[in-house]
Design a protein that fits this description.
The structure is a homodimer of 232-residue chains. The N and C termini of chain A lie far apart (42 Å). In chain A, a hairpin with a 2-residue loop joins strand 3 and strand 4. The radius of gyration of chain A is 17 Å and the shape is globular. In chain A, helix 3 runs antiparallel to helix 6. Chain A has 232 residues and is α+β, with helices and mostly antiparallel strands. Helices cover 50% and strands 9% of the residues of chain A. Chain A has 2 domains: 76 residues, Glutaredoxin; 133 residues, Up-down Bundle (Glutathione S-transferase Yfyf (Class Pi), Chain A, domain 2). Chains A and B meet through helix 3 and helix 7 of A and helix 3 and helix 7 of B.
Chain lengths: 232, 232
Protein backbone atom coordinates (compact mmCIF):
# COMPACT_ATOMS: atom_id res chain seq x y z
CA UNK A 1 0.00 0.00 0.00
CA UNK A 2 1.24 3.46 -0.85
CA UNK A 3 1.95 5.73 2.10
CA UNK A 4 0.28 9.12 2.06
CA UNK A 5 2.54 12.00 3.09
CA UNK A 6 0.97 15.36 3.87
CA UNK A 7 3.22 18.09 2.55
CA UNK A 8 3.07 21.79 3.29
CA UNK A 9 3.15 23.69 0.02
CA UNK A 10 3.49 27.20 -1.34
CA UNK A 11 1.12 28.78 -3.86
CA UNK A 12 3.39 27.47 -6.61
CA UNK A 13 3.25 23.92 -5.26
CA UNK A 14 6.80 23.80 -3.86
CA UNK A 15 7.28 22.17 -0.46
CA UNK A 16 7.64 24.64 2.42
CA UNK A 17 8.66 22.11 5.05
CA UNK A 18 12.24 21.01 5.72
CA UNK A 19 10.77 18.30 7.95
CA UNK A 20 8.65 16.85 5.15
CA UNK A 21 11.73 16.83 2.93
CA UNK A 22 13.66 14.63 5.34
CA UNK A 23 10.79 12.15 5.33
CA UNK A 24 10.67 12.14 1.53
CA UNK A 25 14.35 11.20 1.62
CA UNK A 26 13.73 8.66 4.37
CA UNK A 27 10.98 6.96 2.37
CA UNK A 28 13.22 6.88 -0.70
CA UNK A 29 16.09 5.51 1.40
CA UNK A 30 13.86 2.63 2.42
CA UNK A 31 12.50 2.16 -1.08
CA UNK A 32 8.94 2.88 0.02
CA UNK A 33 6.57 4.54 -2.41
CA UNK A 34 4.41 7.42 -1.29
CA UNK A 35 1.95 9.92 -2.61
CA UNK A 36 2.30 13.49 -1.47
CA UNK A 37 -0.88 15.20 -0.31
CA UNK A 38 -0.30 18.94 -0.60
CA UNK A 39 -1.82 21.19 2.04
CA UNK A 40 -1.38 24.80 3.14
CA UNK A 41 -0.55 26.19 6.59
CA UNK A 42 -4.20 26.66 7.49
CA UNK A 43 -5.19 23.17 6.33
CA UNK A 44 -3.07 21.35 8.90
CA UNK A 45 -5.54 21.69 11.81
CA UNK A 46 -8.22 20.17 9.58
CA UNK A 47 -6.27 16.94 8.99
CA UNK A 48 -6.70 13.74 11.00
CA UNK A 49 -9.46 15.20 13.16
CA UNK A 50 -7.29 18.16 14.22
CA UNK A 51 -4.91 15.98 16.22
CA UNK A 52 -1.74 17.53 14.82
CA UNK A 53 -0.32 21.03 14.46
CA UNK A 54 2.59 20.32 12.14
CA UNK A 55 3.61 18.27 9.14
CA UNK A 56 4.94 15.78 8.20
CA UNK A 57 2.02 13.48 8.86
CA UNK A 58 1.88 10.07 7.21
CA UNK A 59 -1.06 7.76 6.74
CA UNK A 60 0.01 4.17 6.27
CA UNK A 61 -3.12 2.07 6.00
CA UNK A 62 -4.94 2.59 9.29
CA UNK A 63 -1.90 4.10 11.00
CA UNK A 64 -1.32 7.83 11.25
CA UNK A 65 2.01 9.19 12.49
CA UNK A 66 3.01 12.83 12.97
CA UNK A 67 6.48 14.34 13.62
CA UNK A 68 9.53 13.53 11.54
CA UNK A 69 11.41 11.62 14.24
CA UNK A 70 8.36 9.56 15.13
CA UNK A 71 7.85 8.79 11.44
CA UNK A 72 11.49 7.80 10.93
CA UNK A 73 11.30 5.44 13.90
CA UNK A 74 7.95 4.07 12.70
CA UNK A 75 9.39 3.34 9.26
CA UNK A 76 12.43 1.50 10.65
CA UNK A 77 10.25 -0.47 13.06
CA UNK A 78 7.55 -1.32 10.53
CA UNK A 79 9.63 -1.98 7.44
CA UNK A 80 12.46 -4.00 8.92
CA UNK A 81 13.43 -5.69 5.68
CA UNK A 82 14.02 -2.38 3.93
CA UNK A 83 17.36 -0.56 4.41
CA UNK A 84 17.45 0.92 7.91
CA UNK A 85 17.55 4.65 8.47
CA UNK A 86 19.63 4.10 11.59
CA UNK A 87 22.17 1.28 11.70
CA UNK A 88 22.24 1.45 15.51
CA UNK A 89 20.81 3.43 18.45
CA UNK A 90 24.17 5.20 18.58
CA UNK A 91 23.89 6.42 15.00
CA UNK A 92 20.35 7.59 15.74
CA UNK A 93 21.57 9.51 18.81
CA UNK A 94 24.28 11.15 16.71
CA UNK A 95 21.78 12.11 14.01
CA UNK A 96 19.69 13.58 16.80
CA UNK A 97 22.66 15.69 17.92
CA UNK A 98 23.09 16.77 14.31
CA UNK A 99 19.43 17.76 14.13
CA UNK A 100 19.83 19.95 17.20
CA UNK A 101 22.94 21.60 15.81
CA UNK A 102 21.38 22.14 12.39
CA UNK A 103 18.22 23.60 13.87
CA UNK A 104 19.95 25.95 16.29
CA UNK A 105 22.84 27.12 14.15
CA UNK A 106 21.64 26.77 10.55
CA UNK A 107 17.84 26.60 10.23
CA UNK A 108 17.38 29.51 12.64
CA UNK A 109 19.71 31.59 10.51
CA UNK A 110 18.03 30.57 7.25
CA UNK A 111 14.68 31.51 8.83
CA UNK A 112 16.06 34.95 9.68
CA UNK A 113 16.92 35.35 6.01
CA UNK A 114 13.89 33.84 4.28
CA UNK A 115 10.95 34.50 6.60
CA UNK A 116 9.45 37.25 4.41
CA UNK A 117 10.05 35.09 1.33
CA UNK A 118 8.06 32.24 2.91
CA UNK A 119 5.16 34.61 3.51
CA UNK A 120 5.26 35.93 -0.02
CA UNK A 121 5.20 32.43 -1.49
CA UNK A 122 2.50 31.04 0.79
CA UNK A 123 -1.00 30.54 -0.61
CA UNK A 124 -2.96 33.81 -0.32
CA UNK A 125 -5.35 32.18 2.16
CA UNK A 126 -2.38 31.16 4.37
CA UNK A 127 -0.56 34.49 4.38
CA UNK A 128 -2.51 36.21 7.22
CA UNK A 129 -1.99 33.18 9.51
CA UNK A 130 1.69 32.99 8.66
CA UNK A 131 2.26 36.70 9.25
CA UNK A 132 0.41 36.75 12.55
CA UNK A 133 1.98 33.61 14.01
CA UNK A 134 5.54 34.44 12.94
CA UNK A 135 5.46 38.12 13.82
CA UNK A 136 4.42 37.07 17.33
CA UNK A 137 7.85 35.40 17.57
CA UNK A 138 9.83 38.28 16.10
CA UNK A 139 9.78 40.70 19.00
CA UNK A 140 7.23 43.10 17.58
CA UNK A 141 8.83 43.47 14.16
CA UNK A 142 6.99 42.93 10.90
CA UNK A 143 8.33 40.18 8.62
CA UNK A 144 9.65 42.89 6.31
CA UNK A 145 11.41 44.78 9.11
CA UNK A 146 12.90 41.53 10.32
CA UNK A 147 14.20 40.69 6.86
CA UNK A 148 15.91 44.07 6.43
CA UNK A 149 19.69 43.86 6.27
CA UNK A 150 19.48 40.14 5.73
CA UNK A 151 22.43 40.19 3.33
CA UNK A 152 24.66 40.81 6.33
CA UNK A 153 23.33 37.61 7.91
CA UNK A 154 24.58 35.53 5.01
CA UNK A 155 28.16 35.78 6.29
CA UNK A 156 27.08 34.50 9.68
CA UNK A 157 25.23 31.57 8.09
CA UNK A 158 28.17 30.65 5.88
CA UNK A 159 30.52 30.81 8.87
CA UNK A 160 28.21 28.62 10.94
CA UNK A 161 28.39 25.90 8.26
CA UNK A 162 32.10 25.21 8.98
CA UNK A 163 31.47 21.93 10.84
CA UNK A 164 29.68 20.48 7.80
CA UNK A 165 32.52 21.51 5.51
CA UNK A 166 35.01 19.92 7.91
CA UNK A 167 33.15 16.60 7.91
CA UNK A 168 32.78 16.62 4.13
CA UNK A 169 36.53 17.02 3.58
CA UNK A 170 37.02 13.31 4.16
CA UNK A 171 33.77 11.76 2.92
CA UNK A 172 31.13 12.45 0.26
CA UNK A 173 28.26 12.49 2.77
CA UNK A 174 27.75 13.34 6.42
CA UNK A 175 26.91 9.67 6.84
CA UNK A 176 30.29 8.71 5.32
CA UNK A 177 30.40 6.81 2.04
CA UNK A 178 26.62 6.83 1.82
CA UNK A 179 24.02 9.39 2.84
CA UNK A 180 22.31 8.99 6.19
CA UNK A 181 19.57 10.79 8.10
CA UNK A 182 21.90 13.69 8.94
CA UNK A 183 22.33 14.31 5.22
CA UNK A 184 18.56 14.21 4.78
CA UNK A 185 18.08 16.71 7.62
CA UNK A 186 20.55 19.12 6.07
CA UNK A 187 19.37 18.61 2.49
CA UNK A 188 15.83 19.29 3.68
CA UNK A 189 16.97 22.60 5.13
CA UNK A 190 18.53 23.69 1.86
CA UNK A 191 15.54 22.50 -0.19
CA UNK A 192 13.27 24.51 2.11
CA UNK A 193 15.44 27.56 1.48
CA UNK A 194 15.51 26.94 -2.26
CA UNK A 195 11.72 26.87 -2.47
CA UNK A 196 11.36 30.51 -1.52
CA UNK A 197 14.64 32.26 -0.77
CA UNK A 198 15.23 35.10 -3.22
CA UNK A 199 18.92 35.53 -2.35
CA UNK A 200 21.46 32.72 -2.82
CA UNK A 201 22.78 31.32 0.46
CA UNK A 202 26.16 29.95 -0.63
CA UNK A 203 29.12 31.36 -2.49
CA UNK A 204 30.04 29.74 -5.80
CA UNK A 205 33.30 28.33 -4.40
CA UNK A 206 31.68 26.78 -1.31
CA UNK A 207 32.57 23.09 -1.14
CA UNK A 208 29.05 22.43 0.14
CA UNK A 209 27.81 22.92 -3.41
CA UNK A 210 29.33 19.57 -4.39
CA UNK A 211 27.62 17.85 -1.49
CA UNK A 212 24.29 19.53 -2.34
CA UNK A 213 24.52 18.26 -5.90
CA UNK A 214 25.26 14.73 -4.70
CA UNK A 215 22.38 14.94 -2.27
CA UNK A 216 19.89 16.27 -4.78
CA UNK A 217 20.90 13.53 -7.23
CA UNK A 218 20.12 10.73 -4.76
CA UNK A 219 17.18 8.41 -5.45
CA UNK A 220 16.71 9.31 -9.11
CA UNK A 221 17.23 12.99 -8.43
CA UNK A 222 14.64 13.39 -5.69
CA UNK A 223 16.02 16.82 -4.80
CA UNK A 224 16.24 18.17 -8.33
CA UNK A 225 13.09 20.24 -8.09
CA UNK A 226 12.39 23.70 -9.39
CA UNK A 227 13.89 26.30 -7.07
CA UNK A 228 15.71 29.57 -6.64
CA UNK A 229 19.48 29.38 -7.03
CA UNK A 230 21.14 28.34 -3.78
CA UNK A 231 24.52 29.53 -5.02
CA UNK A 232 25.59 33.06 -5.91
CA UNK B 1 50.20 -7.31 26.62
CA UNK B 2 49.59 -3.89 28.12
CA UNK B 3 49.35 -1.00 25.68
CA UNK B 4 51.62 1.96 26.33
CA UNK B 5 49.95 5.34 25.89
CA UNK B 6 52.13 8.43 25.72
CA UNK B 7 50.40 11.23 27.59
CA UNK B 8 51.24 14.93 27.54
CA UNK B 9 51.46 16.17 31.12
CA UNK B 10 51.75 19.36 33.10
CA UNK B 11 54.32 19.99 35.83
CA UNK B 12 51.79 18.62 38.33
CA UNK B 13 51.31 15.43 36.34
CA UNK B 14 47.81 16.22 35.00
CA UNK B 15 47.09 15.37 31.36
CA UNK B 16 47.27 18.35 29.00
CA UNK B 17 45.84 16.59 25.97
CA UNK B 18 42.13 16.32 25.14
CA UNK B 19 43.11 13.86 22.42
CA UNK B 20 44.87 11.54 24.86
CA UNK B 21 41.82 11.69 27.10
CA UNK B 22 39.55 10.38 24.35
CA UNK B 23 41.91 7.45 23.84
CA UNK B 24 41.97 6.70 27.58
CA UNK B 25 38.17 6.49 27.37
CA UNK B 26 38.37 4.44 24.17
CA UNK B 27 40.73 1.92 25.78
CA UNK B 28 38.45 1.68 28.82
CA UNK B 29 35.41 1.28 26.54
CA UNK B 30 37.09 -1.71 24.95
CA UNK B 31 38.28 -3.08 28.30
CA UNK B 32 41.92 -2.85 27.28
CA UNK B 33 44.52 -2.14 29.94
CA UNK B 34 47.19 0.46 29.34
CA UNK B 35 50.04 2.16 31.08
CA UNK B 36 50.38 5.89 30.64
CA UNK B 37 53.86 7.16 29.78
CA UNK B 38 53.96 10.83 30.77
CA UNK B 39 55.92 13.21 28.58
CA UNK B 40 56.18 16.98 28.19
CA UNK B 41 55.69 19.12 25.08
CA UNK B 42 59.39 19.07 24.22
CA UNK B 43 59.70 15.30 24.69
CA UNK B 44 57.31 14.40 21.85
CA UNK B 45 59.88 14.81 19.02
CA UNK B 46 62.20 12.43 20.90
CA UNK B 47 59.65 9.58 20.90
CA UNK B 48 59.54 6.79 18.31
CA UNK B 49 62.57 8.09 16.44
CA UNK B 50 61.01 11.53 15.96
CA UNK B 51 58.27 10.26 13.65
CA UNK B 52 55.41 12.08 15.35
CA UNK B 53 54.67 15.64 16.37
CA UNK B 54 51.63 15.07 18.56
CA UNK B 55 50.18 12.72 21.14
CA UNK B 56 48.39 10.40 21.61
CA UNK B 57 50.85 7.75 20.48
CA UNK B 58 50.32 4.13 21.47
CA UNK B 59 52.78 1.26 21.45
CA UNK B 60 51.06 -2.10 21.26
CA UNK B 61 53.75 -4.75 21.08
CA UNK B 62 55.69 -3.97 17.92
CA UNK B 63 53.01 -1.63 16.57
CA UNK B 64 53.13 2.14 17.04
CA UNK B 65 50.14 4.31 16.12
CA UNK B 66 49.83 8.10 16.33
CA UNK B 67 46.71 10.31 16.04
CA UNK B 68 43.53 9.72 17.99
CA UNK B 69 41.38 8.73 15.00
CA UNK B 70 44.01 6.33 13.69
CA UNK B 71 44.30 4.81 17.15
CA UNK B 72 40.53 4.43 17.54
CA UNK B 73 40.35 2.67 14.17
CA UNK B 74 43.35 0.51 15.03
CA UNK B 75 41.74 -0.57 18.30
CA UNK B 76 38.44 -1.53 16.64
CA UNK B 77 40.26 -3.39 13.86
CA UNK B 78 42.71 -5.18 16.14
CA UNK B 79 40.48 -5.99 19.09
CA UNK B 80 37.36 -7.17 17.30
CA UNK B 81 36.05 -9.22 20.19
CA UNK B 82 36.03 -6.24 22.54
CA UNK B 83 33.10 -3.78 22.46
CA UNK B 84 33.35 -1.68 19.32
CA UNK B 85 33.94 2.05 19.47
CA UNK B 86 31.84 2.50 16.33
CA UNK B 87 28.85 0.27 15.73
CA UNK B 88 28.87 1.16 12.02
CA UNK B 89 30.69 3.35 9.49
CA UNK B 90 27.72 5.70 9.76
CA UNK B 91 28.16 6.16 13.50
CA UNK B 92 31.87 6.77 12.92
CA UNK B 93 31.07 9.42 10.30
CA UNK B 94 28.69 11.12 12.70
CA UNK B 95 31.28 11.07 15.50
CA UNK B 96 33.65 12.63 12.99
CA UNK B 97 31.14 15.42 12.36
CA UNK B 98 30.85 15.87 16.10
CA UNK B 99 34.63 16.10 16.40
CA UNK B 100 34.71 18.87 13.80
CA UNK B 101 31.92 20.78 15.53
CA UNK B 102 33.47 20.37 18.96
CA UNK B 103 36.89 21.47 17.71
CA UNK B 104 35.67 24.50 15.81
CA UNK B 105 33.02 25.77 18.19
CA UNK B 106 34.06 24.53 21.63
CA UNK B 107 37.75 23.60 21.85
CA UNK B 108 38.80 26.77 20.03
CA UNK B 109 36.85 28.82 22.55
CA UNK B 110 38.25 26.92 25.53
CA UNK B 111 41.74 27.49 24.10
CA UNK B 112 41.05 31.22 23.93
CA UNK B 113 40.19 31.08 27.62
CA UNK B 114 42.86 28.76 29.00
CA UNK B 115 45.93 29.28 26.79
CA UNK B 116 47.86 31.24 29.45
CA UNK B 117 46.81 28.68 32.06
CA UNK B 118 48.26 25.87 29.95
CA UNK B 119 51.55 27.73 29.75
CA UNK B 120 51.65 28.35 33.47
CA UNK B 121 51.03 24.69 34.26
CA UNK B 122 53.48 23.27 31.71
CA UNK B 123 56.79 21.90 32.96
CA UNK B 124 59.34 24.74 33.24
CA UNK B 125 61.44 23.21 30.45
CA UNK B 126 58.36 23.16 28.15
CA UNK B 127 57.20 26.73 28.78
CA UNK B 128 59.49 28.54 26.29
CA UNK B 129 58.47 26.16 23.49
CA UNK B 130 54.78 26.48 24.35
CA UNK B 131 54.92 30.29 24.48
CA UNK B 132 56.83 30.61 21.23
CA UNK B 133 54.74 28.14 19.23
CA UNK B 134 51.36 29.42 20.49
CA UNK B 135 52.15 33.12 20.31
CA UNK B 136 53.05 32.57 16.66
CA UNK B 137 49.37 31.62 16.16
CA UNK B 138 47.94 34.51 18.17
CA UNK B 139 48.51 37.36 15.75
CA UNK B 140 51.41 38.97 17.59
CA UNK B 141 49.81 38.97 21.05
CA UNK B 142 51.44 37.48 24.11
CA UNK B 143 49.58 34.66 25.84
CA UNK B 144 48.73 37.08 28.64
CA UNK B 145 47.42 39.75 26.27
CA UNK B 146 45.37 37.11 24.49
CA UNK B 147 43.86 35.90 27.75
CA UNK B 148 42.80 39.40 28.83
CA UNK B 149 39.05 39.86 28.97
CA UNK B 150 38.55 36.13 28.83
CA UNK B 151 35.62 36.28 31.24
CA UNK B 152 33.61 37.85 28.44
CA UNK B 153 34.36 34.82 26.28
CA UNK B 154 32.69 32.50 28.75
CA UNK B 155 29.25 33.65 27.61
CA UNK B 156 30.12 32.85 24.03
CA UNK B 157 31.37 29.38 25.00
CA UNK B 158 28.27 28.63 27.06
CA UNK B 159 26.04 29.76 24.20
CA UNK B 160 27.94 27.61 21.71
CA UNK B 161 27.22 24.52 23.83
CA UNK B 162 23.45 24.68 23.07
CA UNK B 163 23.49 21.74 20.61
CA UNK B 164 24.94 19.45 23.30
CA UNK B 165 22.29 20.54 25.78
CA UNK B 166 19.59 19.92 23.17
CA UNK B 167 20.81 16.37 22.51
CA UNK B 168 21.10 15.61 26.22
CA UNK B 169 17.48 16.59 26.90
CA UNK B 170 16.33 13.21 25.66
CA UNK B 171 19.21 10.87 26.54
CA UNK B 172 21.88 10.55 29.23
CA UNK B 173 24.76 10.54 26.73
CA UNK B 174 25.48 11.95 23.29
CA UNK B 175 25.65 8.32 22.17
CA UNK B 176 22.14 7.73 23.54
CA UNK B 177 21.59 5.32 26.42
CA UNK B 178 25.32 4.59 26.57
CA UNK B 179 28.36 6.76 25.98
CA UNK B 180 30.04 6.70 22.61
CA UNK B 181 33.09 8.28 21.02
CA UNK B 182 31.36 11.66 20.77
CA UNK B 183 30.98 11.65 24.55
CA UNK B 184 34.66 10.77 24.90
CA UNK B 185 35.64 13.62 22.57
CA UNK B 186 33.64 16.12 24.59
CA UNK B 187 34.62 14.73 27.99
CA UNK B 188 38.26 14.95 26.89
CA UNK B 189 37.78 18.63 26.11
CA UNK B 190 36.38 19.36 29.55
CA UNK B 191 39.05 17.27 31.29
CA UNK B 192 41.70 19.23 29.38
CA UNK B 193 40.12 22.45 30.60
CA UNK B 194 39.86 21.16 34.16
CA UNK B 195 43.57 20.36 34.28
CA UNK B 196 44.62 23.99 34.03
CA UNK B 197 41.73 26.42 33.67
CA UNK B 198 41.62 28.81 36.61
CA UNK B 199 38.08 30.06 35.89
CA UNK B 200 35.06 27.72 35.88
CA UNK B 201 33.57 27.25 32.42
CA UNK B 202 29.98 26.34 33.28
CA UNK B 203 27.30 27.90 35.42
CA UNK B 204 26.03 25.90 38.37
CA UNK B 205 22.61 25.39 36.78
CA UNK B 206 23.96 24.18 33.44
CA UNK B 207 22.41 20.81 32.60
CA UNK B 208 25.76 19.77 31.16
CA UNK B 209 27.00 19.35 34.73
CA UNK B 210 24.88 16.21 35.09
CA UNK B 211 26.29 14.77 31.89
CA UNK B 212 29.86 15.63 32.97
CA UNK B 213 29.35 13.78 36.25
CA UNK B 214 27.97 10.74 34.42
CA UNK B 215 30.89 10.85 32.02
CA UNK B 216 33.55 11.21 34.70
CA UNK B 217 32.00 8.28 36.61
CA UNK B 218 32.29 5.91 33.64
CA UNK B 219 34.74 2.98 33.83
CA UNK B 220 35.30 3.10 37.58
CA UNK B 221 35.48 6.86 37.61
CA UNK B 222 38.15 7.28 34.95
CA UNK B 223 37.45 11.02 34.75
CA UNK B 224 37.41 11.69 38.48
CA UNK B 225 40.90 13.16 38.57
CA UNK B 226 42.20 16.15 40.51
CA UNK B 227 41.23 19.35 38.74
CA UNK B 228 40.07 22.93 38.95
CA UNK B 229 36.31 23.35 39.36
CA UNK B 230 34.56 23.26 35.99
CA UNK B 231 31.43 24.80 37.49
CA UNK B 232 31.01 28.25 39.03
Amino acid sequence: MTIRLYDLVAANGRSLSPFVWRIKYALAHKGLSFEAAPVGFTDIPKLCGGKYKTVPIIEDGATTVCDSWAIADYLDKTYRDAPTLFTSPQERAMAHFFDGWFGLEIMNRIFQINVADIHNHARPEDQPYFRQSREARLGGKTLEQFAEGRDARLDELRYALRPMRAALLSAPFLGGDTANYADYIALGGFLWAGAVCTIPLLKADDKLNDWLKRGFDLYDGIGNVERYPLTA
